[in-house]
Write a structure and sequence with these properties.
Layout: H1 13-36, E1 41-47, H2 53-63, E2 69-73, H3 88-91, E3 100-104, H4 113-116, H5 122-141, E4 145-152, H6 155-167, H7 177-184, H8 186-200, E5 207-211, H9 215-236, H10 271-294, E6 299-305, H11 311-319, E7 327-331, H12 337-340, H13 346-349, E8 358-362, H14 371-374, H15 380-399, E9 403-410, H16 413-425, H17 435-442, H18 444-458, E10 465-469, H19 473-493
Parallel strand pairs: 1-3, 1-4, 2-3, 4-5, 6-8, 6-9, 7-8, 9-10
């Protein structure tokens, strides 16, 4: 693959200046138009050390409008970033709609240079590749264009440039020990790069291979391809990408799978039994909090359920004995304008707990296949595609060492009505009941279908749903903590 590239390709100075001048003006115009139409482009620059990526970045920064262009130089992850799945730090800096982001090195460093230097385990590479393909597919499905470049050098040219830069007082500091490792293990690094390209050059997000021995040639080729990508983006203006063909057809009106009807809502606890059991479970959870801190295990519990199902009460009993320095509760409502300008998973990636801590999500990414689906805030294509995207997201979390708990608190319509009426009569709880709650209640049947399909399509061996019978609040609160402590214990034992 890379060995077949013609590295003798070159461009003289006169042609270079003429072509570059045209490209710079064209790119500025295209960028402005994309910005106005809220079209997004991510540029990934990868390749050998000293391949000229810095100069290309400089050219792009010069011709782009700085209000809608950001360059992200990717370096060794910080201690904070190492507390999360490796893609976490890239989700933090994804561009909003209408912007262009250039990644000088990227998520591919983890499966290339880190792999060469053996700082990523061989067994983890396949998972990382799968996560990267899912990541890029999710962005593309959201209308983001991705242009990926590998700038290739001959071993002779690589050595020549490294020596030249090492002797230059202005550039010597840029030459890292890792760069010399690339030269030393040139053939091995080439093989790793070819493997990476082969596994991540998908139909929708292909790699563009650039002959880089001539810097002028490489610059013109990269900028020309970026201009072509922007033109295609403007011509097609994609808002969505069709889901993979293996996704099942989903009937939004009914579900053959009915997990909710199997729940025994008569289960309950007496006040005396509740007080005894809740105290026991809370003490156990408090002890486990120290263990997950010492063993650097991240824990994430998400709560979904019917309005007035008791999510707040369950969360309160779960947290009231915990050390507040090591847990966070995040309540998610309708997305803000900033959040709408990104992929719908963006706001949840940003709130993930670091290793050694606990996070509790009151509502979650499942809003895409529940309220957004039922209320029409997401298109049929968007919410049907979300099942796979959610599965991929949760797989990355579990493979990253997370204890992931998904709770659905289930009550029947009669119990919900009683709780609604009680809230209306209680001046301290009236704020909890809104016209939206009553409106949602009228759509109970539609939500019930959505919940059953959600459970069927997103309950996996590594991330199963736990359905909590919640007509009796005492029973629900105890079962939530019991299930959480059990999952943490299983993780610590394994």
């Amino acid at each position: 693959m890379l060995q077949c590239l013609d590295l003798s390709l070159s461009l003289d100075k006169s042609d270079y200046r003429e072509k570059m001048n045209e490209l710079m003006h064209e790119l500025r115009s295209l960028h402005t138009e994309c910005w106005q139409k809220r079209l997004t482009l991510i540029i990934v620059l990868e390749g050998w050390a000293a391949a000229g990526k810095g100069k290309i970045s400089q050219k792009l920064a010069t011709c782009m409008d700085p209000r809608g262009f950001t360059l992200h130089p990717v370096v060794v992850p910080t201690p904070q970033e190492q507390q999360y799945p490796f893609l976490w730090r890239f989700w933090q800096v994804l561009p909003a709609k209408g912007n262009v982001a250039l990644f000088y090195h990227s998520w591919y460093t983890h499966v290339l240079e880190d792999r060469l230097l053996e700082s990523v385990q061989t067994n983890d590479v396949a998972h990382c590749i799968q996560a990267i393909n899912s990541f890029e597919q999710q962005l593309a499905s959201d209308g983001v264009a991705i242009a990926k470049f590998w700038i290739h050098l001959s071993q002779k040219e690589l050595k020549k440039r490294l020596k030249k830069y090492a002797k230059d007082s202005l550039d010597a500091w840029r030459v890292r020990p890792e760069d010399w490792q690339q030269h030393k293990y040139y053939q091995q690094y080439t093989s790793l790069a070819e493997d990476m390209i082969a596994q991540t050059s998908t139909g929708i997000n292909p790699w563009t291979l650039i002959s880089g021995d001539c810097k002028r040639w490489a610059q013109v080729q990269v900028l020309s391809q970026i201009a072509t990508t922007l033109k295609k983006l403007l011509k097609h203006q994609p808002t969505t990408v069709s889901p993979p063909i293996h996704l099942p057809t989903i009937n939004p009106a009914k579900s053959n799978f009915d997990a909710l009807s199997q729940v025994d809502l008569s289960l309950s606890l007496s006040s005396k039994s509740y007080k005894k059991q809740i105290k026991k479970q809370q003490l156990q959870l408090r002890q486990l909090q120290r263990s997950i801190y010492e063993q650097n295990v991240p824990v994430l519990a998400i709560f979904e359920g019917w309005d007035a199902a008791g999510k707040g009460g369950a969360i309160k009993r779960l947290t009231e004995v915990l050390d507040p320095r090591s847990y966070r509760v995040h309540a998610f409502a309708a997305p803000t304008d900033e959040e709408k300008a990104h992929h719908y998973l963006w706001r949840f990636w940003r709130k993930l707990p670091p290793a050694g801590t606990i996070a509790i999500f009151d509502r979650s990414w499942y809003g895409r296949v529940l309220v957004e689906r039922v209320e029409g805030f997401a298109t049929n294509l968007e919410w049907q595609r979300a099942y796979q995207e959610i599965h991929e997201f949760e797989t990355q979390l579990v493979q990253g060492g997370y204890v992931l708990l998904k709770f659905w608190l289930h009550i029947d319509p009669d119990e919900q009505l009683k709780r609604f009426q009680k809230r209306q009569q209680d001046p301290f709880k009236q704020h909890k009941i809104t016209q939206e709650d009553w409106r949602n209640r009228e759509k109970w049947d539609a939500y019930e279908v959505a919940v059953n399909q959600m459970i069927e399509r997103t309950s996996s061996a590594i991330a199963p749903w736990t359905i909590i019978p919640a007509n009796d609040k005492y029973y629900a609160r105890v079962k939530v903590i019991e299930r959480l402590t059990s999952a943490i214990e299983d993780k610590l034992i394994s």
